[in-house]
Amino acid sequence: MPPLFFHKPTSPYGFLCQWHCAPFTDNATAATFSSAEQYMMYRKAALFNDSGSQAAILRTHEPRKQKSLGRKVQGFDADKWDEVKLAVVEQGNLLRFSQNPSLRAELLATGGRELVEASPFDRVWGIGFGVHEALSVKREEWGQNLLGEALMRVRERLGREERKELEKEERGEGDREGEEE
């Protein structure tokens, strides 16, 4: 099966992009986020105790501005961020896809295909190539594709949860809240 390439929110499979607008809430922070990008930058600022950046990031719903603010986080330590960034992005996307049923269905509909962020400008979260260039170079030349990796982990987890729920229903053990005993 060929990889599924995505990049911008307006491109095919744009719902996979960090910038895609799909509000969700993180109960741990009691904050509502407009996108996974906002969540990522907010958590980055929180990691380095930059409450000013956290507040500014929450005030804007423009992913480009959120990213810009995230690049200016006070006290930033690349090594410390590198230790947690994948988990942060995975958690943000788990929240986003869990709380938006139509997006969850779209993610699960990608099946087992490899998800690849075809960003020609990002070799960490993406592969450092656009779709056409990616198809004409060896895979060894691709970047890390951490966003694709995080999304595939989220898809696997949500798929497992869905299968467990279906199995419960088949056994007659579904949610019985509200039933008389």
From TrEMBL:
Annotated Pfam families: NADAR
Region (Disordered): 162-181
Species assigned in the record: Aplosporella prunicola CBS 121167
UniProt cross-references to InterPro entries, sorted A to Z: NADAR (IPR012816), YbiA-like_sf (IPR037238)
Listed name of the protein: NADAR domain-containing protein
Segments of skewed composition (Basic and acidic residues): 162-175
Lineage: Eukaryota, Fungi, Dikarya, Ascomycota, Pezizomycotina
Domain NADAR, first and last residues per copy: 5-158
